[in-house]
Predict the structure of 2-dehydropantoate 2-reductase.
Amino acid sequence: MAALSAAVVGPGGVGGLLGGLLVRAGARVEFVAGERTAEALRAGGLSVRSVKYGDFTVPVAATTELSGPVDVCFVTTKATSLEAALERVPPGALGDGLVVPLLNGFEHMAVLRRRYPAEQVVAGVVRVESARTAPGRIEHTSPFLTFELGSATAPEERVAELAARLREAGLEVTVRDDETVMLWDKLTFLAAFALLTTCHMAPAGVVRTEHRDELVAVLREITAVAAAEGAVFDPGGILAFFDGLPPQMKSSMQRDAEAGRPTELDALGGAVLRAAERHGVAAPAVARLVAELAAREPAQNG
Ligand SMILES: NC(=O)c1ccc[n+]([C@@H]2O[C@H](COP(=O)([O-])OP(=O)(O)OC[C@H]3O[C@@H](n4cnc5c(N)ncnc54)[C@H](OP(=O)(O)O)[C@@H]3O)[C@@H](O)[C@H]2O)c1
């Protein structure tokens, strides 16, 4: 079988790690990035330091616009740069390849399905802690890296085949039968974790003790919105998961806020509120947190 051909649009913490592992496993990978990052990748390759996969550097192909069809195009930008990054993937260049975004949230799925044929768009979820420390330099700090794939619009057999090919490359991949449940499964926890840790500028341990009533209220509201979307989760189960987190754990939204970078507030909290509004579900605790955080956001992110 021919080697898997892939593109990674936005080779940061997630995309750099994923693309680096695929290159190391023998896949043909085109990294699609801004000029400066593409140049750094071409000149110095991609270096990964990983507690799970070890440290390695691979030479990589990098462009500023997808050069031609691939089997799969992973989209791994932050939500705040999604639209600009997609300009680098003209629908005509994609051929009949699958498009797999690994962003948190869910509203990006509609953006992708407006731009590319829906039968080629597959939702993805990644669980990892990985950061881009410089262009082409990736630090993977979690002992885990797992992927989930699911699509309401792509043929099941194409999703299954992609999962199989990624597993052949050594990745842990699960196929989920319900895209909405898959995306909200992550978002119900993540939105609460991100909003509360960032608003209070405190790690998980402080949030779950000093702001417990608010945490419980937020989890109730988010799970009510998820249920209205068709994804039913028990808020008590998510609270128990929250209680098991390492007390010092921070969210990436919190780290972005601390560093003065734009955050994914709108893609997480904003998206929950828009869904709440659509379904007529009250979400006052989430609305309060989103309003407070929006007021602190750097100006360029609205
Ligand atoms: N990192 C994690 O541990 C983690 C875990 C789970 C889920 N996620 C989710 O995964 C998504 C990606 O997060 P991340 O942490 O990997 O972000 P990141 O490290 O900031 O990487 C984003 C990448 O997108 C690139 N980019 C920005 N604008 C672009 C444009 N116009 N054209 C091409 N590339 C562009 C950036 O390029 P430059 O390098 O040139 O700045 C960067 O390499 C987010 O939705 C996040 O919530 C992240």
Notes: The chain has a mean pLDDT of 97. The first helix runs from residue 13 to 24. The radius of gyration is 19 Å. Residues 9-15, 33-34, 37, 76-79, 81, 84-85, 88, 102-104, 126, 128-132, 135, 252, 264 surround NAP (CB under 6 Å).
